[in-house]
Amino acid sequence: MSKENTNSKEQLKQVQKDLALTVEELSDVYEEISILYHISQSFSGLTIDDICNKLLDEVAINLDVKTVSILLLDEERPEAYTAVSTGKWAPDKVIAKGDNIIWHAIERNKPQVFCDINNTPHKKICPDLQAIMVCPLTGKKKKVGVILTGEKTSGEEFFASDSKFLMAIASQAALAIENAYLHQELEGFFFGTVMAFVKAIESRSHWTSGHSERVTRYALAIAHQMNMDRSFIERLRICGLLHDIGKIATPIEILDKRGELDDNELIEVEQHPLTGSSILSELKQFRDITDGIRYHHEKWDGNGVHEKLKGTEIPVMARIISVADAFDAMTSDRPYRKKLSFEKALNELIVHSGKQFDPDIVDAFMQVKDALFL
After folding, report:
1. Looking at per-residue confidence, does 374 or 118 come out higher?
2. CATH class assigned to 204-372
3. Is 151 in contact with 65 (CB distance < 8 Å)?
4. Residues with Cβ < 8 Å from 67, sequence gap 6 or more?
């Protein structure tokens, strides 16, 4: 065999070897990208607590580490507090701003990696750990915290690929946490506005003070008993608080009248569900909430005042509010009558179950009544 042929074969073997390595690297890169995509998708729409718990699980699994802690920056004090943790990290640990690895990672916006932290001045931060990696959580506009990991289950050292992966997952998580903070702020502003509406309604008459909050409390208890999802429950909360917003247009003389209402006055009061849904009609994304307000005085048997909806034609949100609203009305004093006892009000719900009220919702209320009124 000629020397030239031998060289060609050796070159071919080397090419094949290089190609195999390249394919292996591409496979690893693809797997890493797939994991990161999965993780980023899984963060979507979660609360801050849920994101932190999800992040902790993903880091523990993908890096095969014993200890993971997510620390978030306190917005009022110069410290980072533990949001969630597992392994050798105290769940209530707080790290004040200073010359330590947590704040180095935050301020330098770079991961801090130590194979043996016992040989460094940072030992007191985590005395029970040897190998440690701390990665900043930095969003688009602000720093939100850090991820800390302890030694690997295998006992191996941390490699550059581990740091790179942690930075990638931290970037996705930080954006999700930042968005969740923004959502939390907007939600706080929104509920502040809702409560301002509620106070405006209830300040008109002392007879209805606290009514919307109580109705909301009963409605949420019913929804939890019926295993409604989180999204429905949050929107039901808004519906409960605003279900009587239409009464802002009802004359105060009618709301405070001590005698029975005449026919015209009764018609005026009965307009409040329609008025309420009309007031909120521009909130297109809240159609289910405005429907809950509009139809909360419809009756299960179809003999309601306005649209004569029957059974499941009535939105479930309205059916829940109907039971909660009726019970609170019966157990509260009104200018024209004294309140009923809880026992008599509960009996009224049972008597009118299948007529005025959805039987399943009455049943759910009966299941939670003891917990509500202990």
Report:
1. 118
2. mainly alpha
3. yes
4. 85, 86, 87, 88, 89, 129, 148, 149, 150, 151
CATH 3.20.20.370 fits 47-180, yes or no: no
**Beta-carbon contacts of residue 311 (< 8 Å; ≥ 6 apart):** 300, 302, 358
Retrieve residue 315's tokens: 């939105």
**């490699």: which residue's tokens?**
159
Strands 143-149 and 132-138: antiparallel
Q: Which stretch of 28-37, 60-69, 322-331 has the lowest confidence by average pLDDT?
A: 28-37
pLDDT at 250: 84
Residue 159 gets the label, from left (phi > 0), alpha (psi -120 to 50) or beta, of beta
Which are the catalytic amino acids?
Answer: 247
Chain length of the chain: 374
Instruction: Count the neighbouring beta carbons within 10 Å of the beta carbon of residue 283.
Output: 11
DSSP 8-class letter at 312: G
Per the model's pLDDT, the better-predicted residue between 208 and 328 turns out to be 328
Give the C-alpha separation, 320 to 212, whole Å.
Answer: 14
d(CA 73, CA 51): 15
Q: What is the pLDDT of residue 23?
A: 53
Number of Cβ within 10 Å of residue 311's Cβ equals 13
- Quote the pTM value: 0.63
Q: How far apart, in whole angstroms, are the C-alpha atoms of residue 337 and residue 93?
A: 56
**Mean pLDDT, the chain, integer:** 85
Residue 46 CB partners (closer than 8 Å, separation 6+): 54, 176, 180
For the chain, the domains span 1-43, 47-180, 204-372
Query: Is the pLDDT reported for residue 38 higher than 60?
Result: no
Angle of helix 263-270 relative to helix 272-279, nearest 10 degrees, comes to 30
Q: What is the pLDDT of residue 254?
A: 82
Residue 34 dihedral angles phi and psi, to the nearest 5°? -65, -40
Among the listed residues 63, 70, 73, the one whose alpha carbon sits nearest the alpha carbon of residue 84? 70
**Euclidean distance between the first and final Cα of the chain, in Å?**
96
